[in-house]
């Protein structure tokens, strides 16, 4: 693996999941693989799980991890070609990224979308600039449109918990929120579910919240959450803002917050969420605190997903 920006960078998802689960069984099995190598973790936006799990994963491989909160502590970066930098930006990515490519063996980056300019966000301008100018393998720690480390974790969590000899029914359901959120987690989960192909995948959301077509091709779509939940083995709960009326929050009719009562229609479903979660807005206390909830196991698995990805890149570097 030369980079990890989306499901398209993975040749065999099941094999990568198996690598992650092997690390879960024996975290130090490749403890010398990263010796003498260094990863730079650049955050333009906040994080708890992604930041810490990737550092822990690097340590398990004997690799040094350096975190830089570039969004809060770095120079304001310019991305536009030909910019006359007489405004607020101080350093062009063309100058910053090649230096990072000298300091590190792998560069990992978190960069959220603006939710103001769909074309700019969906061009992944920031992530792609670091790919283009750093000259070293880049790992997405969540970009403007995707969150592949989260999605690999999600597939790993379903793989390790599903015990039946059939495809699981996996439902991605929109949930309410107090402010507009990116589509990244939903886009990415949908992309990985369809690329994986080992689940019957259903997406449900209110009118106005359709995801970009390329991510949901192959999924079953319904605007009825009740219909979607029928017989579900997993319910992945996530809010996202509108893709069509970009970044907006069209009013959603009905109650979309998942409750224990709604879960009665499922096959005793496991409930997933990437976290952080707004309790009693996105997901009820009664669900999060019930045996249905997989969120802690899911978040803990972030380490093994990150370790699998870093090890694959280190093996090819
Ligand atoms: N799920 C996730 O990416 O968590 P953080 O934003 O805390 O990293």
From TrEMBL:
Pathway the protein takes part in: Amino-acid biosynthesis; L-arginine biosynthesis
Keywords from the UniProt entry: Amino-acid biosynthesis, Arginine biosynthesis, Transferase
Residues of the Aspartate/ornithine carbamoyltransferase Asp/Orn-binding domain: 185-311
Residue stretches making up the Aspartate/ornithine carbamoyltransferase carbamoyl-P binding domain: 3-160
The EC number(s) this enzyme carries: 2.1.3.11
Residues the record lists as binding carbamoyl phosphate: 47-50, 75, 110, 147-150, 274-275, 302
Record flagged with keyword Amino-acid biosynthesis: yes
InterPro entries: ArgF'-like, Asp/Orn_carbamoyltranf_P-bd, Asp/Orn_carbamoylTrfase, Asp/Orn_carbamoylTrfase_sf, Asp_carbamoyltransf_Asp/Orn-bd
Pfam families in alphabetical order: OTCace (PF00185), OTCace_N (PF02729)
Residues given in the record as N(2)-succinyl-L-ornithine binding sites: 142, 177, 238, 278
Substrates-to-products reaction catalysed: N(2)-succinyl-L-ornithine + carbamoyl phosphate = N(2)-succinyl-L-citrulline + phosphate + H(+)
Job description of the protein: Catalyzes the transfer of the carbamoyl group from carbamoyl phosphate to the delta-amino group of N(2)-succinyl-L-ornithine to produce N(2)-succinyl-L-citrulline. Is essential for arginine biosynthesis.
Family: Belongs to the aspartate/ornithine carbamoyltransferase superfamily. SOTCase family.
Assembly notes: Homotrimer.
Stated name of the protein: N-succinylornithine carbamoyltransferase
Provenance organism: Flaviaesturariibacter amylovorans
Name of encoding gene: argF'
